[in-house]
Amino acid sequence: xxxxxxxxxxxxxxxxxxxxxxxxxxxxxxxxxxxxxxxxxxxxxxxxxxxxxxxxxxxxxxxxxxxxxxxxxxxxxxxxxxxxxxxxxxxxxxxxxxxxxxxxxxxxxxxxxxxxxxxxxxxxxxxxxxxxxxxxxxxxxxxxxxxxxxxxxxxxxxxxxxxxxxxxxxxxxxxxxxxxxxxxxxxxxxxxxxxxxxxxxxxxxxxxxxxxxxxxxxxxxxxxxxxxxxxxxxxxxxxxxxxxxxxxxxxxxxxxxxxxxxxxxxxxxxxxxxxxxxxxxxxxxxxxxxxxxxxxxxxxxxxxxxxxxxxxxxxxxxxxxxxxxxxxxxxxxxxxxxxxxxxxxxxxxxxxxxxxxxxxxxxxxxxxxxxxxxxxxxxxxxxxxxxxxxxxxxxxxxxxxxxxxxxxxxxxxxxxxxxxxxxxxxxxxxxxxxxxxxxxxxxxxxxxxxxxxxxxxxxxxxxxxxxxxxxxxxxxxxxxxxxxxxxxxxxxxxxxxxxxxxxxxxxxxxxxxxxxxxxxxxxxxxxxxxxxxxxxxxxxxxxxxxxxxxxxxxxxxxxxxxxxxxxxxxxxxxxxxxxxxxxxxxxxxxxxxxxxxxxxxxxxxxxxxxxxxxxxxxxxxxxxxxxxxxxxxxxxxxxxxxxxxxxxxxxxxxxxxxxxxxxxxxxxxxxxxxxxxxxxxxxxxxxxxxxxxxxxxxxxxxxxxxxxxxxxxxxxxxxxxxxxxxxxxxxxxxxxxxxxxxxxxxxxxxxxxxxxxxxxxxxxxxxxxxxxxxxxxxxxxxxxxxxxxxxxxxxxxxxxxxxxxxxxxxxxxxxxxxxxxxxxxxxxxxxxxxxxxxxxxxxxxxxxxxxxxxxxxxxxxxxxxxxxxxxxxxxxxxxxx
Length: 881
Ligand code: B3K
Ligand code: ZN
Description:
- The chain is an alpha+beta fold and 881 residues long.
- It is 40% helix and 21% strand.
- The protein folds into five domains: 1-199, Sandwich (Immunoglobulin-like), CATH 2.60.40; 316-448, Orthogonal Bundle (Neutral Protease, domain 2), CATH 1.10.390; 454-547, Sandwich (Immunoglobulin-like), CATH 2.60.40.1840; 552-661, no CATH class; 757-881, Peptidase M1, alanyl aminopeptidase, C-terminal domain (Zincin-like fold), CATH 1.25.50.
- The protein contains 27 helices and 33 strands.
- Helix 19 (737-750) runs antiparallel to helix 20 (754-765).
- It is globular, with a radius of gyration of 28 Å.
- The model has no long low-confidence stretch (mean pLDDT 98).
- Residues 304, 308, 327, 330 line the site of zinc ion.
C-alpha cells in the first residue's frame, strides 16, 4: 500500500513536539513472518504544554496488537491507530506516563529495506531517515532523543548472534532453543540511529585503546567464511579511531564498536550508534576480488561512519532540513582523513572530479536545492551530492576563511557547546563566528542559496605603471523557485606566476581583501589591482579548488600551457591541463557536428606525453591527468543541445591522437610499470597500477591493442588490473574474440561471487554504442542478476543510465524505454532505489530536441504509471516541472 500524502514539509514550520520520550525499552521476538515488537516508552510532556495536548505518534504500515497506557489496557476510545499513526487524544494528566505498544512485523516480506528486514537470512535494520516508524509507533524525528534498552530474542541455531546499539549487558537461554541478549545504550539518541542485527555471522575481532586508555572491543561481522576479507576494513577502522583523536581530539565512547556487513542495502552504510551496518561492498576486499578504488572506498566509508559518532550521533540534527550539519561535515572529515592517509593532491583532484560530475549537474538542473533545503516532500530524496559534497565544500571554505587553527577552535567549541543536542546550521555557523570574531552572515548564503556561482575573470597588465589587474565578476544562475540570487562571499585562492616558475611578488593590492593567497569576493565586481608587478604574470585561479564555482576566464592558451607544466599548486596544474583537454574536446565535438575530421594541436598531445613521463609527479597524479574528462563532463560544459554521439566521437578522436603521438613513450612507460612485487593496496602501489592501466587504455587503440589488453587481462594478478583490462576489451574492442573470451573467463571465474559479478554487469552496461541497451535488457535475465538487490540494480541499470551516454541516450529512445520499464519494476519493491535511479534523467533538458522529446515521454510514462510511491513521484515531478 502506498501512503503518498503529497504533503510538503517546510523548514519554517518546525516546532518542537509537545512530548518527549526520554526512555525507550524494546523487546524483539524475531520471526521472519511474524516478529513481535514490544515497545515500552516513557513519555514526558514538555514543560508548559497543556494536559489536553494530544499525543500523535508516527507509524508506517504498522499492525498494532496491544496498547497499554500507564499499566492499563487501553480502551478502544482511548486511542486511534491507523497503519500510519497512533493518536492518543487524551493522554494521562501526569507529566510522565508509560506507553506499551505491541506491533507485529514481517521482516521477510520487507523488500523496501527500510525498518526491520532480512538480508540472506540475517535480520537487520535501516531506520534513517524514517524507518523506525515501520517498527513501532514513535515520535520518529531526530530531535527526540531517547535512552534505549533493547532485548532481542531468537532461536539460537538460526541466530546465534544478537546485536543492538550500545553495550551488551546480559545474555542467556530461553525455552525451546531460543536465547536472548540485552543491550543498553547510555547515550540519548534519535530513533534513526536505532539498529538491530541477528543471525549467523562470522566475526573478525580486534581492539583499540583510546587516548584516555580505555580498551574498546571491535567487531566486524560478515557472512561466515568471508572473515579473511574484512582485514582491510578493520585496519581502516583502527586508523580512523586514531585519526579522529589526533585531528579533532575526539575519542570513542562505548565499550564496543561493531560493524555488520549485509548484502542487501539501499546505500553505502549507516552510522547507527555503536553498531554500524554496511553494504558488504564497502567491507569485503582482497586483491583477488576488489579493485584499488574499492579499497579506497572502504577506507573512506569506514571512516565516514565512524566519524559520525561525534558529527551526527553525539551532536545530531534538529530536523531533516539540517541534514548537511552531519553529512557535509562528516564528508569533510572523511576527505581530510583520506588526504592524510594517502596523497592530499590526488585526493583533492578526485574529490573535485566527483563534485563536478555529481553535484554540478544537480545544481544546474531541475533538482537543484540549497545545501540546507527549505522544503521537501520525501526526505530520502535529499541525501544528495549537494547536501554531502557541496556541504563538505562549504565546511572547507570555512576553514579557508578562518585558517586551520581557528577552524579547529570553532570545532572544539561546537563539540563543547552542543554535545548531546540536536543542532542546526545556525548553531554550527555561530561557533565559528564566536571562535573567530568574524561575521559569517554573507558566507552563510552557501547553505541557503542553490546554484553554482560563476566567476568571470579577465586580467590586464600595465608595464608602465607596473600594475596587474584582475577584473572579477560573480553571478549565481537562477534555480527552481529561486530566480533572484544574492551576492556570495567566495574565497578564491590564487597565485601569480612569473616566467621563471616562481611566485610573483607584489608590493600592495587593493580592490578586495586579499589574505594568505585568497581573494575574498563579496561584491558583484571587484577590480583587484596588484602594484609593483613588472612583468605580466600567468594567473592561477581557484587553487586547491578553494570554492565550488565555475570559472569563465579569458586566458591565453600560452598561459594555460605554462600553468599545466609549471603551476606550483598541484590541483591548479591538473586543472590547467584538464581545461586544455576539455576545450580541445569541445572543439572536436563541433568539428564532428560540422562533418569535419577533428584535429588537435601537437603541443597538446605532446604535453600529455610529458605529463605521463614526468617522474617528479606521483603516478596517481599522472593517471588522473590522463583520465580525460568523461563524455558527461564535456556535455556539462557544452551545456545545451547535446548530441552524445558527437561528443563520443570527439573524445575518441583526441584519445587516439594522444595515443599515436606518444606511442613509444607510453609503451615504454607501460612496460616499465609492470611489477612482480607482492600486492599491496597502499596509495603509491595503487597509483602505479592506475597509471599503467590508463596507458593500456591509450595503447589499446593502436594496432595490436586487443592482443595487448588480452595479455594484460590473462596475466593480471589482482582485480584492479583484471577489471581494467576487461573494460578496455569490452569498450574498445567490443565483439572481438578477445573481448568475448575475457568476458566469459571472468564470468566463469566469479559466477558465485555477487560483488565481483557486479563489476561484470557494470563493464557491460557501460559499453558505448547503440547496441548496449539490448545487452543490458538480456542481462536482467542473468542468474546472477536480481531486481530485488540494490547493488545488482545499480551495477546494471544504474551504470547504464548514469554512465553510458551513447547507450542510454540512443537516438531512437530505446534506452529510455528500457529504463522507464526497469524503474517501474524496481519501484514495486523498493521505492527509494527506484527514485535514485530516476535521477539519471535530470539533465534531459540539455539534450538536443529529438532526444529531449523522447526523454520527456519516458518521464511522463513513469509519472503516469499509477500508484506511484512518494519517493518516485517527487523526483519525476520535480524533473518535469
Ligand atoms: N546516514 C546514512 C545515509 C542514510 C540514507 C537514508 N536514506 C549514511 C551516511 O551518510 O553516513
Ligand atoms: Zn554520512
